[in-house]
Amino acid sequence: MSKLLSANSRVSRFLQTFRSCPARGFSSVSLKGRSCLTLKDFTSEEIKKMLWVSADLKHRIKQENEYLPLLQGKSIAMIFEKRSTRTRTSTETGFALLGGHPCFLSTQDVHMGVNENTKDTARVLSGLCDIILARVYSHSTLEELDKEASIPIINGLSNLYHPIQILADFLTLQEHYGSLNGLTVSWIGTGNMVLHSFMMVAAKLGVHLKIATPKGYEPQKSVIEEAQRLSKQHGTQFVLTSDPMEAAHDTNVLVTDTWVSFEKEEEEAKKKRLKDFEGFQITMQTGSVAKPDWTFLHCLPRKTEEVDDEVFYSSRSLIFPEAANRKWTIMGLVVSLLTDYNPKIPMIKF
Length: 350
Known about the structure:
With 350 residues, this protein is an alpha/beta fold. It has 13 helices and 9 strands. The chain has 2 domains: 23-161 and 329-338, Aspartate/ornithine carbamoyltransferase (Rossmann fold); 165-322, 3-Layer(aba) Sandwich (Rossmann fold), CATH 3.40.50.1370.
């Protein structure tokens, strides 16, 4: 079995993946003024530009100790209908690190949906802030915010997509493997917003995607159809199955997420769900049919039913670098939507 990279050697390998040639074509890609509700709306080149900017900020700030006040004088309104550890912390610390001011707004802080409609909230915040990140229950809330606001909207998580998580996941894999093109990612779990976002991005980065869900827990039909179209367009493999071991076979990356809702479920419903997911826990046995260099991702929070401790805390697990990269990819996304910034490092290898 190949020895996996240590944290320090991952950074070293990451830095070696910078291309010495100029990034012709990418410097001209501008995302300024756009919203990001789903990565379905972005091309391969645009997603790569987001990741390149994120890698650039991480290298210049973390490795070179540069101070980059790119968001000096700007503010972000952070609307959170759902609680959060990574999204809130990464956005607040990242925006502040770039010289901007983050403003956290929970359901106890704003009138949206209670004494004021979404339309009015969007218009008010457009006059007070430069960008809005919203973590909401319904994707339609984001769509209404985007329709009524005159500033960019970022999806911090909805019932349909979680784009900022996927940017962090792919930056983490790029750092670890040195490139993304040709990798196989296998999702073993439920068809949710994180999986939907994987499905909208993988093919655009040349990544093969295999999905195993129990029957009745598949991704949405419209998302499947779009993923199939993208796979055909970009020449990648896209597999749907109900067999976890089939999905894990010959893969580079095993990924899962929470099967049970973040919110409280009826005990009987929870028992049924756990029964439906029997055999879907990721273990070293699951990894035994994967490639020798297989790794593991989970967006957190995690329960042991989804992945056992042996895998979760092993050297194969990239979960903590993945969580840390939420900060750099949020920073990269916000900088891309608010400025015309072009990275100073050479283009990273995709």
